[in-house]
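User: Design a sequence. Structure:
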């Protein structure tokens, strides 16, 4: 136990000296907290950040406009649900160019993209349940709204969509890697430990799965299971286990010849205990490294699927879906609509790859 503790401390010290490893770890922790508290951080906390304002579509970062909120009956929703899953609201937000208080209520001029005179409307006082006087309408229902990253082609707040979209990327990575680890470790340990016909059969399955292009296999599984959020998780996970299985098999083949495994057999321990208690704990260092790389791969695959339209389905925000909606804007003078989610994907994938490199250096017994 003392040796194990000292080795852990030594690995931690080596990791702390790796600048890019520490930087990536901090970045990924911040991304995780952002994903958890996305709706608390997002300016638009409606479910899926789906408040559309077509009159202010495709506006540049930093765009500011006055917004009139027309309230409606709020659906009952507890604070926990609102905090983690967004606010169920049917309130209408109207971008306005100007407004005037009149005797019966408030008169507004709707915002127009070209700056021309917009449609003029009068909303009576009774429309605003929490305003007892016309003066209170301005303070309670009219606000200046700033879109830090601008708006998408539907007039939705791009920053809010990006913040909530990180949930999809991290969730797909976590679930897909978990599925791939469970399947890969199971088959790899069986193949390596028992050998013979078991090894031949499992390696045949691994090689067949390996020979199919990953994206093509994911598309086939997704189409078989149907389009949707959870279907993508399962599809990506089922395509990533082969690499884990091959590595685990190789490690088990090496470890099972060690003296402590021979001693365990001599003591009469069953195969299950030998595999789980003696072999796997000493074989998982390379698997941890592969998991970081698979995390990055899962994010890229999900982004590709969403770009093709078979990943997370609208209105759920996904970075790949945002690129799909706006890639044409690259040649239409507003490239940031596609570049922003592209940079986000690149940053997250790079962080996982750097983390994998750092773990490789830390867990390499030769260093």
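Assistant: Done.
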């Amino acid at each position: 136990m003392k040796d194990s503790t000292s080795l852990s401390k030594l690995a931690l010290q080596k990791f702390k000296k790796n600048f890019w490893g520490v930087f990536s770890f901090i970045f990924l922790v911040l991304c995780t907290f952002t994903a958890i508290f996305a709706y608390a951080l997002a300016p638009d906390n409606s479910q899926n950040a789906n408040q559309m304002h077509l009159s202010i579509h495709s506006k540049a970062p930093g765009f500011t406009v006055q917004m009139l909120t027309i309230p409606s009956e709020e659906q009952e929703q507890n604070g926990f649900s609102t905090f983690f899953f967004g606010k169920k609201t049917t309130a209408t937000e109207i971008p306005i160019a100007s407004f005037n208080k009149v005797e019966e209520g408030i008169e507004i001029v709707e915002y127009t993209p070209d700056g021309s005179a917009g449609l003029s409307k009068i909303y009576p006082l009774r429309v605003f349940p929490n305003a007892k006087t016309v003066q209170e309408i301005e303070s309670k229902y009219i606000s200046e709204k700033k879109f830090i990253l601008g708006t998408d082609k539907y007039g939705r707040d791009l920053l809010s969509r990006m913040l909530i979209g990180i949930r999809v990327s991290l969730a797909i990575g976590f679930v897909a890697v978990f599925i791939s680890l469970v399947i890969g470790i199971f088959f790899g340990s069986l193949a390596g430990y028992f050998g013979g016909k078991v090894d031949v059969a499992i390696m045949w399955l691994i090689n067949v799965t390996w020979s199919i292009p990953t994206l093509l296999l994911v598309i086939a599984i997704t189409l078989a299971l149907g389009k949707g959020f959870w279907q993508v998780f399962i599809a990506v996970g089922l395509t990533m286990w082969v690499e884990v299985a091959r590595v685990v098999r190789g490690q088990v083949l090496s470890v099972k010849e060690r003296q402590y495994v021979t001693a365990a057999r001599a003591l009469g321990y069953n195969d299950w205990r030998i595999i789980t208690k003696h072999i796997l704990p000493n074989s998982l260092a390379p698997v941890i490294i592969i998991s970081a790389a698979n995390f990055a791969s899962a994010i890229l695959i999900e982004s590709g699927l969403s770009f093709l339209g078979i990943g997370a389905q609208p209105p759920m925000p996904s970075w790949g879906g945002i690129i799909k909606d706006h890639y044409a804007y690259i040649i239409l003078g507003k490239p940031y609509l596609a570049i922003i989610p592209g940079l986000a994907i690149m940053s997250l994938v790079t962080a996982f790859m750097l983390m994998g490199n750092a773990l490789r250096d830390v867990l390499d017994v030769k260093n």
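The mean pLDDT is 87. The two ends are 22 Å apart (CA to CA).
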